[in-house]
Amino acid sequence: MPYRLDMNSAFHNPHSAFESLWRPYCQMKTASPPVEVESTDGVILRLKDGRKLIDGISSWWTACHGYNHPKIVEAMIEQAKTMPHVMMGGIVHDQAVRLASRLAKCLEGEGNRVFLSDSGSVAVEVAMKIAMQHWANRSSTGRTARNKFISFQNAYHGDTTGAMSVCDPDDSMHANFKGFLLEQFPQPIPENDELEAAFDSFVDQRKDQLAAVIIEPLVQMAAGMRFHSSAALRRIERVCRKHDVLLIADEVATGFGRTGSMFAYQQADIHPDIMCVGKGLTGCSVGLAATIATAKVYEPFHSDRWEAALMHGPTFMGNPIACAAANASLDLFESDPRFEQVSAIERVMRDGLESLVDCENVVEVNVLGAVGAVRLKADLDVGVAVSGFVEEGLWIRPIRDTVYLAPAFTIGEEDLVKLCDAVCQYVKLDSRGECSSPSPPAPTP
Ligand SMILES: *Cc1c(COP(=O)(O)O)cnc(C)c1O
């Protein structure tokens, strides 16, 4: 039985050597000991005990070119030799200037502005501050009542307090802070006419309080790969335009090719006013994020009044090593066939995973770009699942009720098939064999 916890295996060493390290999203008293990784290469995590794992989830979806891409490593080393860091107050440097001019083109239109920061959560905080101050700067008093945000059920926008306030409020991850967080307006994603009408009237009634609507386009990845349609994004945009509310696309997870286009919003043909990027930006090397605003959003900040300036400036914003890594990563998107690779991954995952819809324990199977997800009827025991996958030489870490793959775009077909087979085996074991097979691939949503 591959998916049983083996308490005697080295993986479950009861004498924790990790006492001082406070691990994320983890009840450390009861959790299995972490996997000790010594080095990474391509799609491989090499463990301290010599085992190798094929990585199916690319370090929270960041390793778009695989680990240790030589071009990115080289760019970082070169930059570290010349200038590892310099403050951005009153100073600019080539790597940041070049990166900003490239990221500015990621939204339509001329004159877009790019604010660099160090993590996706901060990029969201900055987006929220920009949205609120946009309205304040436009008013004759310099103040605004438009300081609330609409976000959506199952949303995840980060772990800092502003970002937490736009996450799903009943989400177990941030539920402990209910009452402390700012209250925003979580809404269902308007997937049909009725929901759009309700969304429209909700926005209409509160437009004087609203700064912006924020959404993760096409896939709410951290919630466990919840998908919605391009049509829903167009409905949201329509309502935002009708009532003159800003639209923020949080592409921290979906950006840089993950869903098959450079950014997910492009598939819906919508036009966000502000976009947040992070995660894949540096090709899995070092923390960096950016908030990109259109000229329209930026315009009221451009003023003779000092108070109209954006008051934000993380110490390590625009870190030169991080910017060099991001520029090298963007070069790889230009020189290498990443989008063909993503389409190939999508095909393999459709073939490999879609027949699982016939299992009685499966709610849905979704594949889009380099994201493939199988949602089960019940939450699964993540620790047990992970240790089972590790025994098979694979790194797959489900989220709640969802087993998913989000591999590096450079993964070879053989490795990807192994990952898909392991997901199938896990799901079929979980269903106690109650899958009707063989079956033709299911129609895709
Ligand atoms: C991961 C994530 C964030 C937060 O990014 P961090 O770098 O972890 O702070 C924000 N939004 C989305 C959609 C994310 O997936």
General description of the model:
The chain has 445 residues and is of the alpha/beta class. It folds into two domains: 35-65 and 337-429, Alpha-Beta Complex (Aspartate Aminotransferase, domain 1); 70-335, 3-Layer(aba) Sandwich (Aspartate Aminotransferase, domain 2), CATH 3.40.640.10. The chain contains 13 helices and 16 strands. The chain has helices spanning 58-61, 70-82, 94-104, 120-138, 161-165, 193-206, 230-243, 265-268, 295-298, 320-335, 338-353, 382-391, 413-430; strands at 37-41, 44-47, 52-55, 113-117, 148-152, 185-187, 210-215, 219-220, 226-227, 246-250, 274-277, 289-293, 362-368, 371-376, 394-395, 402-405. Strands 4-12-11-10-7-5-6 form a seven-stranded mixed β-sheet, sandwiched between helices. A four-stranded mixed β-sheet has the order 1-2-3-15. A three-stranded antiparallel β-sheet has the order 13-14-16, with helices on one face. Helix 2 (70-82) runs antiparallel to helix 10, helix 3 (94-104) packs across helix 10 and helix 6 (193-206) runs parallel beside helix 7. The longest helix is centred in the N-terminal third of the chain and has 19 residues, at 120-138. It is globular. The protein starts with 36 loop residues before the first strand and ends in a 15-residue tail after the last helix. Pyridoxal-5'-phosphate binds next to helix 4.
